[in-house]
Amino acid sequence: MEYGPLNGKCPIWSTRASTSGAGDGSLVASPRSAGQYSISGSAIATLLQLDEHGRARLTTWLVEQRMLGNDVPNVSSDVVSFAKSRPSLEVFERAYRLLDYFNIATDYIGEEINFDPHGISGQEMLAVSESINFDEIIYLIEYLREEGFIDVELLESGGSVKITMAGYSAISDRRKKGSSSDQAFVAMWFDPTMNDAYEHGVAPGVTDSGYRPVRIDKKNHNNKIDDEIISEIRRSRFLIADFTQSDEKGARGGVYYEAGFAHGLNIPVIFTCRADAISRVHFDTRQYNHITWKDPTDLRHALAARISATIGDGPHKRP
User: Would you give the DSSP letter of residue 135?
Assistant: First the structure.
């Protein structure tokens, strides 16, 4: 089926947008989706599967892609399916993302930011905080005010916000939260065929860089496994996601989830994959710069170099 021009509408939210092309070549610039994206005809059709919360999660995916340097993410039908099933952001995370938005919107310390619920600023606030209406924005703003992070004046036609010193401190603390950690979380296929890759590739590559690798199946705990994974990712300086898979057993869904969760927390992710399996990597990560390795020794040296170059040497780095 051929899909025609979008006629100035964001297909995700049906709000005003700048659009060009048709079908698989559609390009959209939408404040409600926080920027530009491309979308396929099949994805436009599958958007009907999403309720407003699913559309908000899809918008979060777009925001996170841009944070990772993908300025014009492509929305395919697979991305829509991913948005349908991915977890929603926690409310506190949504509030902090709104605070980050206010910070980015200012040109100088203490600047007052005006916003209009019906204007571009209001649409962008909805997008970055995974909100579906402006009542949610007001709720998040009230929380930020109660915490002392912002001064705010609310009017019928909008309002104004000013970040306080406590707010700037919260932004700084949030950014530093993982920066002092010596831990690297490892997400990978827990199959015996991958033991050598971990023991002689990933683990020594991490330690060579001065960090401590943590793999959830090697950690003693009494908690629910999903809760433990989330806790350990939060404690980590960065995450290593190896997407090696076999033809028979398919994609490692847990690895994709853990990488996505780390992205949502602004925790750096280093992508790796065995060279003979890179063609099977899913669309979500294919555009990122994977370390493609042939053997554990190759993986060890390449991983150590990537960590030192992108994260920096850890506290246990040997001279």
Answer: H
